[in-house]
Structures are given as C-alpha cells and as structure tokens.
Amino acid sequence: MRFRLTPRETSFYDMFAASADNIVTGSKLLMELLGADTAGRAEISERMRAAEHAGDDATHAIFHQLNSSFITPFDREDIYSLASSLDDIMDFMEEAVDLVVLYNVEELPRGVEQQIEVLARAAELTAEAMPNLRTMDNLTEYWIEVNRLENQADQIHRKLLAHLFNGKYDAIEVLKLKQIVDVLEEAADAFEHVANTVETIAVKES
C-alpha cells in the first residue's frame, strides 16, 4: 500500500474533484438551455461563462500546485493531461452555449438534447470518479462507461449531421447548427480523453 500523507499530495485530489464538480454545473446549464427562450439563453450564457472562468481558475491552481510540489501523487505529465482535459470539457460546453446565443438560434435540431444528455451523464460519472483517484478503486467501470457514452455520442452526431444536410435548412443555418453540434461532439471526445488519462494513471499505479 502506498504511503501518501503529505498535504501537497492530497490537495491534487481535492482540486480534480472541484474541477469535475464544476463540469457538472456546466452540464446542468446545457440542460437548461434546451427549454429556454432567447432572454433565458442569454442569462444561461452568462452563468456558463462564469462557470468556465471558475474552471480556468481550478486548472491554473492545479498547474501552480504542480509547479510548486516536489512530490506528486502520480506522474506530472498525467496530472497535466488530466487537468487540461477537464478544462477542455468546460471550454467546449461554454463555446456551444455562446454560439447558440451569438447565432441567435431559434430552434436547435432534434437530437441535440440527446447529445446534451450524454454529456450530462458523462459529467456525473467523471465527478463520481475523481475522488476515487485517492485509492484507485472502482475506476474500471467509469472509463468503460465513458468510452461507451462517447461511442453513443458519435452515433448521435452522425445522425444530426445527416438531419442537417437533408435539405430542410438553408445553407447559413446549416453552418451555424453544424458548428454547435460539432463543438458538443468535441466535449464528448474530451470526456473520453479524461477517462483514458484516468485509465493510464490507474495502470501505472497498479
């Protein structure tokens, strides 16, 4: 059993958990976006921007701790990769909301709600998994399920693209909506990157 009692080591776990909890906040704001009117979307965008800034702060705190710590709980490059991937998720979610507002999208295409539901589930799983980095217990099901969700997100994304190109939308609207669904797909990919990094860490620590 590893001897891990130094304060600097344990602080990383708390910071990863805080970053993941913030992503859950972002995923809930995405869910709110689905049923909001134009005014409501603008307000949600402001809250998402604040959450994204909080995510940036959490990431910077991890990097600062990494640069000032002599001892780390696992490899430095893995800490950096995990923090960066968590930050990417928040960035993509914030970008998607911002695009909806900036493009003044009146109605999101059918299927976007499924994309967001997948992201919300991945966010919950990620937040549940981060505290388990302390012991490396009960993580296998996490990365398997997130990878499954990413495959599901790929299928939803392909169906959305087929829907967008079926002739129902004009060319400008297609460009707007495609950018939004593409960014949501990138968020799903980023969740998978987090899960893959956790798997790498767990393998090294086993």
Task: Give an account of the 3D structure.
There is one protein chain. Helices cover 80% and strands 0% of the residues. The chain has six helices and no strands. The chain has helices at residues 7-34, 38-68, 76-102, 112-129, 140-164, 171-205. Helix 4 packs parallel to helix 6 (171-205). Belongs to the UPF0111 family. This is DUF47 domain-containing protein. It comes from Streptomyces bluensis.
Please give a handful of descriptors for the protein shown:
206 residues, 0% strand
Shape call: globular
Q: Which radius of gyration do the C-alpha atoms yield?
A: 18 Å
State the share of residues found in helices, binned by percent.
Answer: over 70%
Q: What is the quaternary state of this protein? A: single chain
User: Treating each run of at least 4 consecutive H or I residues as one helix, how many helices?
Assistant: 6
In round numbers, the mean pLDDT is 93
Beta percentage is: under 5%
Cα distance spanning the termini: 10 Å
Characterize the largest beta sheet: strand count, sense, and whether it forms a barrel.
Answer: none
Structural class: mainly alpha
Unreliable sequence segments: 1-8
By DSSP, the count of extended strands is 0
Order of helices and strands: HHHHHH
